[in-house]
């Protein structure tokens, strides 16, 4: 039987605010357990929520960037259920009036671009975090009340690759907006993936399973691909798919059942009585939208159109916002954009990986890298010498000072170069003979010998040209 995979994804993303969604308690990852919590977060009697204006602003930014229709009337609802990580016994969310409706995220697929439709984006508060061990369960309420947006897609994805591409693109957009730090490993962005199979050509949805809390983009693809194989094997053997919640076991590279779902939970939603509806000012919304930063797709187009970069180089740079911002800073001081991209993508990334250093802690001054690139272009130093200079500017040194201290100035004086070339030609009569017999590689060999004799200081282009002139005379 031919199956079609149907995938929808719910993403919870913590917003980058200093305080909680409905209280003045601080938001701080990694703080001592239960040190960033107050009586509102803990649901003490008589306490009242107060809406975080900054969280609303960030949610509007996200909804706008995702092409959603903004609802200027902010309303909150209660989602009622009892669980140990929910101290109030209910969660304040936006069930009936999400801040954004519709929208889409455009991804790249093997067949070209594809728009993944969004159902909604709504604001809510996060729950506490549980830690299970042999002695029991511990709860850290620091996370309780942290502002979230939940982004719900339509079931438009058809493979693990598409699901991973969707999460990656969404993560990139939110990172560029700076509405969240989107660190999946820290839980500030969490993915729940719904998967079902149906016979190819059918419009009827199959029985879905939900994979909870996937913590990396790679695991999104792996979990989907395993679950597709698992469900297909069950259907082909005549067994029924059970609606359930599963998790991805990274060590086993398999999804594992967590709990069965016998029906939809009745959360008994009703309007939050302690938060009156808030009518947002149209001018305030417009100002937020006007100040949106440059997003990944727009930046990629700019790199290709203004800087002449190819699709690959532009894509690599755009995929890392910090790296892209560094590249832009380099381009403020040089017009050699392609060379700047090459040094950033190849040498800089390699140096950072070797030092186990994150791009955020990059010690290289973009102005120094630009100065070094200009020196290569001007012929002051060779590309080989530039690698030595680069090692020093990664330590914070000025490239001009490095060149001066190491006596690296490139040999570009024709008289001086000709003397070296004559000596090399005299020592390599066979190469002269090879050249006369049409073996052009002899020139490359001779250039290498001159570079070796000059200890890498000879200007390669000038050396190549002068050698050809001298060979023609012999």
Shape: elongated
Poorly predicted ranges? none
Count of helical stretches: 15
Mean pLDDT: 92
- What Rg, in angstroms, do the CA atoms define? 30 Å
Question: Structural class of the helices, strands and pairings?
Answer: alpha+beta
What fraction of residues sit in β-strands? 15-25%
Distance between the termini: 76 Å
Q: Major sheet, described briefly? A: 10 strands, mixed
Number of strands: 17
Bin the helical content. Answer: 25-40%
What would your notes on this structure say?
With 474 residues, this protein is α+β, with helices and mostly antiparallel strands. The strands form 4 sheets. Strands 1, 2, 6, 7, 8, 11, 12, 13, 14 and 15 form a 10-stranded mixed sheet that branches. The chain has 15 helices and 17 strands. The longest helix is centred in the middle third of the chain and has 20 residues, at 217-236.
């Amino acid at each position: 039987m031919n199956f079609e995979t149907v995938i929808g994804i719910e993403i919870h993303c913590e917003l980058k605010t200093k305080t909680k969604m409905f209280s003045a308690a601080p938001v701080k990852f990694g703080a001592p357990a239960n040190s960033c919590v107050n009586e509102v977060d803990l649901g003490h009697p008589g306490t009242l929520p107060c809406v975080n204006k900054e969280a609303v602003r960030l949610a509007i930014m996200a909804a706008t960037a995702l092409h959603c229709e903004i609802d200027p009337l902010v309303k909150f609802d209660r989602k009622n259920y009892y669980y140990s990580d929910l101290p109030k016994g209910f969660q304040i969310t936006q069930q009936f009036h999400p801040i954004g409706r519709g929208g889409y995220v455009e991804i790249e697929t093997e067949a070209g671009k594809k728009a993944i439709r969004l159902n909604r984006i709504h604001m809510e508060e996060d729950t506490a975090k549980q830690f299970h061990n042999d002695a029991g369960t511990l709860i850290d309420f620091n996370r309780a009340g942290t502002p979230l947006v939940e982004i719900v897609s339509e079931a438009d994805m058809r493979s693990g690759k598409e699901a991973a591409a969707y999460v990656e693109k969404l993560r990139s957009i939110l990172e560029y907006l700076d509405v969240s730090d989107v660190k999946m490993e820290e839980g500030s962005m969490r993915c729940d993936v719904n998967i079902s199979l149906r016979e190819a050509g059918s419009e009827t949805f199959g029985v879905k399973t939900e994979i909870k809390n996937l913590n990396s983009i790679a695991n999104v693809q792996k979990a989907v691909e395993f679950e597709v194989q698992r469900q297909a094997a069950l259907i082909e053997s005549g067994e029924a798919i059970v609606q359930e919640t599963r998790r991805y076991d990274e060590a086993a590279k398999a999804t594992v059942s967590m709990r069965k779902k016998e029906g939809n939970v009745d959360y008994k939603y009703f309007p939050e009585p302690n938060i009156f509806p808030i009518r947002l000012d149209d001018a305030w919304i417009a100002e937020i939208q006007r100040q949106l930063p440059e997003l990944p797709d727009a930046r990629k187009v700019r790199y290709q159109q203004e800087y002449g970069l190819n699709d690959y180089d532009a894509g690599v740079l755009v995929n890392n916002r910090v790296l892209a911002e560094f590249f832009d800073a380099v381009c403020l001081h040089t017009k050699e954009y392609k060379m700047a991209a090459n040094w950033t993508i190849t040498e800089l990334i390699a140096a950072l990986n070797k030092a186990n250093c994150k791009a955020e802690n990059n010690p290289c001054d973009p102005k120094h890298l630009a100065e070094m690139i200009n020196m290569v272009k001007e012929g002051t130093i060779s590309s080989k010498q530039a690698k030595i200079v680069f090692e020093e500017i990664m330590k914070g040194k000025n490239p001009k000072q490095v060149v001066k201290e190491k006596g690296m100035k490139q040999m570009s004086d024709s008289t001086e170069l000709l003397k070296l070339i004559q000596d090399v030609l005299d020592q390599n009569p066979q190469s002269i003979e090879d050249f006369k017999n049409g073996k052009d590689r002899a020139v490359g060999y001779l250039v290498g010998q001159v570079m070796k004799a000059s200890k890498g200081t000879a200007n390669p282009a000038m050396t190549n040209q002068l050698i050809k002139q001298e060979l023609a005379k012999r």
